[in-house]
């Protein structure tokens, strides 16, 4: 593909990405046990009169859709950053243990220390960051080895999962509210949950735009980045910190939703290349659309049973992960 074709493709995708977010959000509000037409949505948002339709739109579906958009955006950007920093196409917050670290911290907060539940996003961020640092240093061998990252992530996932199971066995009388969260889902999410995650998500997503330049420079390799005056290890640490904040924010409200940070950035990279000026915003929008559409499908396709969106995304993402694992000729 020549530069002109790639530029044209980028322009088309940069237009389609926000359109897909708008369509996914509208479908998430319109589709359900009670179908709602576009004029009714507009009326509910502009002139609510507390009719049943207005209540469904404003109190049930709208906050759920907004949380889905933020969750998908956070997970996709987190994955895009991790894949660049660790130079591994399989670096996803769920696959390599970052989400498990956030999940363990969240479980400890919800089960053992429920009086500190208002600190849940901060606790999830701390757990994600500690996991990221552990994986990064375990995989370091004159560079972050992709194979070692995957192996360290698998081991850490197993360890953190065992600790979470142990906590739930010891506090079995308190885990009923945690079990749906572990599957990853948006059922029952409300304006309270949105206000809970919104400050953290906005900070992380806004700062991620500022991370575009250092992420692009790290793609050149450590030596080239150092020759350009970059403090490589400091920048890498800050990017891991940012990725952990985004993953922890998503996990704190939506639970353990996996594979979004793997599938979306990798698909976007295949379409428009590695340039983070395009990769990051398109991944952000693509992740938001994917989670919202998947949540809409999970709560409607299997009606009257509502499937947690994390289960549906795992069914979609696991084959993609295996495909990447099989085609690993470009790993170093």
TrEMBL record:
Keyword Hydrolase: no
CDD domains per UniProt: TM_ABC_iron-siderophores_like
Any GO CC annotation of this UniProt entry: plasma membrane
One GO MF term: transmembrane transporter activity
Compartments, as annotated in UniProt: Cell membrane
Family of the protein in this entry: Belongs to the binding-protein-dependent transport system permease family. FecCD subfamily.
Identification of the protein by name: Iron complex transport system permease protein
């Amino acid at each position: 593909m020549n530069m002109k074709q790639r530029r044209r493709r980028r322009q088309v995708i940069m237009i389609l990405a926000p359109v897909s977010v708008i369509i996914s959000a509208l479908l998430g509000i319109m589709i359900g046990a009670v179908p709602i037409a576009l004029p009714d949505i507009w009326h509910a948002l502009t002139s609510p009169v507390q009719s049943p339709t207005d209540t469904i739109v404003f109190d049930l579906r709208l906050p759920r859709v907004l949380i889905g958009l933020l969750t998908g955006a956070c997970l996709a950007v987190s994955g895009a950053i991790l894949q660049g920093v660790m130079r591994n196409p399989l670096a996803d917050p769920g696959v390599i243990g970052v989400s498990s670290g956030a999940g363990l911290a969240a479980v400890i907060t919800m089960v053992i220390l429920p009086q500190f539940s208002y600190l849940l996003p901060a606790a999830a961020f701390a757990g994600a960051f500690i996991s990221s640092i552990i994986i990064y240093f375990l995989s370091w061998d004159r560079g972050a080895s992709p194979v070692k990252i995957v192996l360290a992530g698998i081991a850490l996932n197993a360890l953190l999962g065992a600790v979470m199971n142990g906590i739930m066995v010891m506090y079995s009388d308190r885990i009923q509210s945690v079990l749906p969260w572990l599957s990853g889902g948006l059922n029952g999410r409300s304006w309270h949950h949105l206000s809970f995650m919104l400050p953290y998500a906005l900070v992380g997503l806004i700062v991620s735009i500022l991370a575009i330049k250092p992420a692009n420079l790290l793609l050149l390799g450590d030596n080239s980045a150092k020759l350009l005056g970059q403090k490589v290890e400091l920048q890498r640490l800050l990017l891991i910190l940012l990725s952990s904040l985004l993953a922890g924010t998503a996990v704190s409200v939506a639970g353990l939703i996996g594979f979004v940070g793997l599938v979306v950035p990798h698909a976007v990279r295949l379409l428009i290349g590695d340039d983070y000026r395009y990769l990051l915003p398109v991944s952000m929008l693509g992740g938001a659309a994917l989670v919202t559409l998947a949540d809409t499908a999970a709560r409607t396709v299997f009606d009257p049973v509502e499937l947690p969106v994390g289960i549906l995304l795992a069914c979609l993402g696991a084959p993609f992960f295996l495909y990447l694992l099989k085609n690993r000729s470009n790993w170093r």
